[in-house]
Write a structure and sequence with these properties.
The complex is a heterodimer of chains A (about 400) and B (about 100). Chain A is an alpha/beta fold. Helices cover about 45% and strands about 20% of the residues of chain A. Chain A folds into 2 domains: about 240 residues, Thiamin diphosphate (ThDP)-binding fold, Pyr/PP domains (Rossmann fold, 3-Layer(aba) Sandwich); about 140 residues, Rossmann fold (3-Layer(aba) Sandwich), CATH 3.40.50. The chains are: A alpha/beta (about 400), B mainly beta (about 100).
Chain lengths: ~400, ~100
Amino acid sequence: MGIRERLSGNEAVAVAMRQINPDVMGAFPITPSTEIPQYFSTYVDNGQVDTEFIAVESEHSAMSTCIGAQAAGCRAVSATSSCGLCYMTEMLYVAASDRLPITLAVSCRALSGPININNDHSDAMGVRDTGWLMLFAETNQEVYDNYLQAMRIGEAVELPIMICQDGFITSHAIENIELVEDDKVKAFVGEYNPKHYLLNKDEPMAVGAYATPTYYMEAKRQQAQAMIDAKDVIRKVGAEFGEMTGRTYGLIEKYMMDDAEEAIVIIGSSAGTAKAAINELRAEGKKVGLIKIRSFRPFPSEDIAEALKNVKAFAVMDKDDSFNAHCGPIYAEVCAALFSNGVVGPKGINYIYGLGGRDVRIESIKTVYAELDKIVETGCTGETYRYLEVRE
Amino acid sequence: MSHLAKDMTAEVTWKEITPGCNIFEGATASVIETGDWRTMKPIIDMDKCKQCLLCAPVCPDMSIPVVDGKRGEFDYFYCKGCGICANVCPFNAITMVKDEK
């Protein structure tokens, strides 16, 4: 049985890091992830971990520190948000292409401008093509659980992994949480034994080579395969975690989808709000359901197509806009998933919602289902690119 | 699966290439073909060559092998066609020509 606690999402990540005791942390503060290195530096100072805590001058350097450390053969971690994640971007590509399984906690926050410190997903979505694995959490418990699984997943496929949560909404809100005992965490996560590392005196190696056009595409195709292979690894690690804790994880979570005629596809903390809306609508006899994406990278294309194939209408919720005069990133990927898997029946719309911390209430989600009702009734989708609850 | 640098040739497949093109040996420069970006290549006329050896030390790579105090034919495996050797030769023994592949 686990340990009952009450923690903020940031603190839950810091506790998970303490239990894992990584070798190196490259740290630079930015709201709302600042608390993660702040709490963790206390554990370092108290001697509860023997992590090398490297306070750097920028996020670019924080990620460079992690790359150097992980290439040397260490487990390296960092945490960031918003423009800090943007500033890391150059090095995020290097970490992924050098196949270094670094773990990065992201407390998601809007990007400027207008300047805004509150939650949306524009930071994480902006780095979605860097080659990192990306898991998103609905609750503080999921942030913690995802973090405990992160290194097992990343190290198995030799790719870095982001553990994303919603800034302030889960990062600062305190919730009841069940922690895993320290010894069980250590046994579950295990030791890091990389096949190749810079500090191996018996095998001199070079990391970050130049590749001419003759080699570059082969390297990228191999990197793509690691992302494909990660789907099964995430399922296996999620199942093993479930055996230990009773909390099993896959690529997506389905809520009330068995007989659903209308569905919402969503990511992050608003899934909880949507579930509450579904409970109320189900009480009125409406056949509504939800698909929550846990793994955004790799994208669970087959799972989503399977889950949506029998609905009449669906809405994909994007807490970010691609500004392509068309749709947000999750809608684009969901539609591609459906089309690729031969699912063309359901009618889909896209909502951009919750930008810059705009509150998402049960009523907000209910208006989405009300729009889906209209689409099912009339057979007409109307405008598919919509903003939720924006003042007209 | 080989991780040796010598096996990372232009025929290597995506399944066989080293992760991230990382290199797992020291001193591998000699086994890697770096002459494949060449567009011009130097040709030596041995009748004009006086073996003064001004060309060998200015070659930025190792394309002019010298054995027993005499230079031999160019080693095109490394030659990028920079033309410094042709420029430095006092006897016009080295000509730059278009490299046809």
